Structures are given as C-alpha cells and as structure tokens.
Amino acid sequence: MTNKAKFQHWALNLDKDNLAWLCFDKHESSANVLSASVLEEFASIVEQLQLNLPDGLIIYSGKKNGFIMGADIKEFTKINSEEEAYTLIRQGQKVLDALEALACPTLSVINGYTLGGGLELAMACNYRIAINSDKPVIGLPEVQLGLHPGFGGTVRAVKIAGVRAAMKLMLTGKPIRVKAAKNNGLVDQLCSDEEWQNQARAMIKSKPKQATAPLIEKLLNLPFLRGFIAKTLIKQVSSKANKNHYPAPYAMIGLWQKHGASTTNGYKAEARSMAKLMCGSTSRNLIRVFFLQNKLKSQFPASDTNIKNIHVIGAGIMGGDIASWCALKGFNVTLQDRSTEDIAPALKRAEKLFAKKIRDNSLLEKTRSRLSEDLLGDGVANADLIIEAIYENLEAKKELYKKIETNMKSTAVLATNTSSILLEDLRVDLKQPEKFIGLHFFNPVSQLPLVEIISCNDTDGDTLQTGFNFVKKIGKSPLLCKSSEGFIVNRILAPYMAEAMHLSEEGMASIDIDKVAVNFGMPMGPVELVDTVGIDVALNVSKVLGKAFNRPIPKKLIDMVENNELGKKTGKGFYDWTFDGVSKPNATADETALIPDDAEDRLILPMLNEAVACLEEGIVLDSDMLDIGVIFGTGFAPFHGGPIQYAKERGLENIMMAFAKLEAKHGSRFKAHSGWLKLTK
Ligand code: NAI
Question: Per the confidence metrics, is the pTM higher than 0.70?
Fold first, then answer.
C-alpha cells in the first residue's frame, strides 16, 4: 500500500488499486470508542476523501477485541443542557451522513464487538462484512443506559433490517451473533480472519446491490400500518418497563411511528429525542450505575486468582448452587453434605444449569466432571477455598470448623455464606481467625450478581484479595462489607419487609403493597420477596436484626413459621403458590381498596434510613459503593441510582420532612437517622 496518512486515532492508506484502507485504532485506549476527538478526525478524513475520491473505502479496526464499542459514554456525563446535547448529536449524525454520501463504495469490517455508535457507523457504509464468530457482538444496547441510538441508528437500522428486527435489536439492547446479523441484512457477508482483506476488496470492486429491508417490512413501514405495530410494540415493552421509569423504548417506538424511519425528518427528531433522554434523570442514573460497576470491581488491585480447587460444605439451596456455579466457571469443586440424599437435589439442579448454559457437548462433559459429590469431606485437604453453607446455626458452624481446620492446607481460605451471624462469633475457636471471611451469596445464585465479602477489623489483606479475585473470576460483583448484623443487603431489606408487615396488619392487601413497591421501581414487592426468600429465613434475619437494633419481630412471621407456611417453598406464605401448579400468586387486587397516600414512603424511606446508618457505621466504603451494592443486591430501582442518589435527587430537605411526617403519624420507627445531618450539610 502507498500514500500513508496518519492521524492520532486513524491511519489512512491508499493502495495501488486506489482503494482507501482506513484503520481505527483509538490512541492510548484498549478499545475503540467514538469520542469527540475521534469523530473530529473522522470528519476531516471523510472530507479529504470527498476531495480526492478513492475507488472505494474500507474501514477496519486496529484492535483485536472488536470494531467499535460505541460512543464514549464518559463524555455524556459532561453535557450540561439539552441544547448542547442536541448540537453534539447532530454533529455526529452529519459525519455519518457525509460518510454515507461519499461517491465511492464504502465498507466496514466487523471483527467482533460492533455496538451502538459502532454499528451506526457501519450502517452508514454501503456494505458490511463480518469475521465469523459465535459470540453475540453486534448490537444497539443504548436502551440499557436509558437512551436510544443517536447517530441515525433508529432510521438506518429500520431501513436495512426492517422494523421488526431493528426494533428487537434496539428495544432489547441485546447484541446478536454475526450469523443472525447476516440473516437480517446488517451484515452482507461473513469471512474468515485470514480472508477479510480479499473479500472486502472483491466486494468493493463488484459493487453488489446494497442490503435493504424485505418488501413486507417496507409495507409495515407505511403510515396506516405503523399505528397498529406501534401499539403491539408498546404492549410488549410495557410488560417489562414502566414508561415513567424507562422512557427510552417508548421514545424509540414513538419516533418510528411518527417519522417511519424517514431520512428527511427522522435524524433531527432522533437527535432531539436523544438529547432529552441524555439529560433526563433515568439515563444519568443508569450511566452512573454503569461506571459504579467498574468501581465495584476495582476496589482491590487487579490480580489473578490462585484458587483451583473449591470445597463446599452444605449442599442445600445455597451451597448446592454455589458449587455448580463455581464448576461452571472452571473450578474443580467437591460438594459435601451429610448424606447422598442431601446432595442429590443439588446435583440435579447443577445438571439443569449446565444444560442451560453450555451448548457444546464436550464442554458440558468437562464441566460435569469438575463437580463431584464428597460425603467424607476428602476435598478439604486439597482445597484452596472452602465455602461453608450449612444451616444458619452458630454452634453447628463452629463445630464444623473445628473438624476441618486441621485438615486444611495452610494457604487455604475458609469462608462462610452465613446471612446473619457475626463473623467475630463464628471465628472464636479458629487458629487463624484473621484468615476467615464471609462470602455472602444471594438466592438464586445463578441470577443475582452480588456477593458481599465480609471482613472483621483485623482480617488479613491477602485473604480479602483472594476472596475478591475469586468473586470476580466467577463473574460476580464483590461488595466489601464490615462484619455487622445483616451486613448491607439484608440490613437494608429488613425494615422494608417489616413495614410491609405493618401495612398488611393494617389490612392492606398483599398485592397492593407489592404494587406500590413495583410502581416505585423495585423488581418485586416486599411481600412476594418475603415469600420467595422464605418466611423462616426472613424470621431469622428479623430476630438477629431485632436483637441488634432493638426492634420488634413481626408476630405474623412467627405464626406463619409455626404453621409451616414458609412461602414459595411450602406452597403457602402470604400468597398461595400452588395455583395451577405455577409459582405465581393467585391473590387479586381489590380495585376499590384504598391505598394510603404515604404507603410508598413507608416502604422506601426505611431502606434509605438504614442505608445512611450503614454509611455512618462504616460498614461500606462510601455512598457510591452503597448505591451500587444495594442496586445489585436488592434490585433497588436502578433508574433512581440507588438509595443515597435517590435521596439526593429528591432533595434531602424533602426527605427529612417526609420522615418527620411519618414519625408523627406512625411512631418512632420512622425517626430519621442522625447520619442524615452529615449528608444534608
Ligand atoms: P439449607 O437448609 O437449604 O441447606 C443446608 C444444608 O447443610 C443441608 O443440606 C444440610 O444437610 C447441610 N448440613 C447441615 N449441617 C451439616 C454438616 N455438619 N456437614 C455437612 N452438611 C451439613 O440452607 P441454605 O438456605 O442453603 O442456607 C445455608 C447457609 O446460607 C446459611 O448460613 C444461610 O444463612 C445462608 N444463606 C441463605 C440464603 C437463602 O436464601 N436461603 C441466602 C444467603 C445466605
């Protein structure tokens, strides 16, 4: 190739056939993202090419991990007004318009992740070829940050793939595999890692017809049909996302319904809508949550784990699922319980998990072989990490530690999955108490992303680092917590559930209580949550927290445990779970029932109060960690940004007034924690 032109992020080579090869390799960055400076350079390159038109332009990536990951989200957080956002988005759109308008054929080479703005850039080219792979790498995930595509993607995706495929891509935000992208026109050809250059050249030279949506999709785009389809799309979306909480999917459907992917009006309307979303609180909070996830994972320096063998004791709901998850993630796991009958259900569930997650038969075999039953506890001697998950009983746990400690390797770490017992009490007889930590998983293990890592004041730093590396390695998010009753997540959930019991005792229907919480943005109401975790588990946690903080234990829970009404697991709790054999409450809301005006505050504010107490007591590092921990651990409405962020956004004065009102009406359980004073200052 000849005629090299080098920029900071791009390198342009003109070959002997007068084809321009444009390599994107973002300076000092591990991945390609479209920042303002990247787009500025790109704009000037396109301008140059317009003046000296090559016979074709091939855009490819200099990074092994993919083509373009999307826009530079960090820059979104610096935007101060909708007008500023609109101007920037329009600038980006114009760059891609100029690319599309180039009078020579253009092609993007998709070599892995091609997301958001990356796919929008590729769609502005005439052709797209993709290096074959089995991973879902092509997508428009903006909706996950409360946004929609802004560089013309809402228009071009519909034009190329048709409304149904484009909407699926944009509304779910889930990336698809290159083969699926080829089926819907987003990719024209698949190629191998070795052949892409020849294939790109051949395609540019032969100038085949550009991909456009099939005729049926074009018909669906006609104005009189759009209304019907939009209605169906809204129905689908509203079953998953409340419009007041997550406006982006509704905005996307609205844009299409109004403009039908028109290139005349569609782009400007897209930019206006995107600017509004970008400056709205949902998107700001979701972007903050996105960055906090990284902060959560960088609480300790990055280093690899030296753990290979894991021994789990207690094959119940938690131990069994922790064991299978660890085997799935590549560890050798031995699983111990008191009898084969105790282990069998866990192995059955493991089989289901593996079958669901692994398609390849030989991989499935390998994963299965990593998990083995170990009645005698032989695995203890060989384990690098031992996770105890037996009954929530102090004496039983201590007894067990005594038996195993002598057989453990000197370098091994002992961890407990206790949900409520203080580590200081559990470790009293251990020879190396400073090497004992809590690894508190949540139920169901395969679905919940958080693991609380519990430490005492003198816990050994290397042990914590080992625990931290392990949690990251199994794909979970680690939250460091100081040992204290209920740690973070259960402590914050307890008053929320307790208040639900108060409302229930006052005669409010369970389903209405849950509705109030779900309308606020919780993934599940507190009553359904109590039924799901188990009335016995909830009772146990309220006993521990009740003792520690001098709070009454809901009588209803005691009665229910006595009657063996343990919730979902026994088929009867607050709801009847045996309905048609489906695990679904069959209670129906009484539409005429009065819902107290303050019901939402009564449920939500106690969580906020407890969050402030955790901060004040230093149980969690700071309010950022608390917010992200509570979102991951309880599902606390992510679009509110976590309990502390929600309080700040609502206004601390407003929160104080709400507490005062609740305290005057319902008593001292609503007394605002003294830690609020610091926050208000
Ligand atoms: P579970 O009752 O389902 O299972 C406990 C298992 O431990 C049983 O299979 C039992 O046979 C076995 N076991 C008891 N003593 C043993 C011994 N000495 N040696 C070997 N096996 C023994 O209990 P679950 O719910 O799995 O809880 C286990 C631990 O996890 C508890 O500490 C609990 O607080 C904690 N936890 C529970 C959560 C939940 O949602 N169930 C959530 C997070 C933590």
Answer: yes
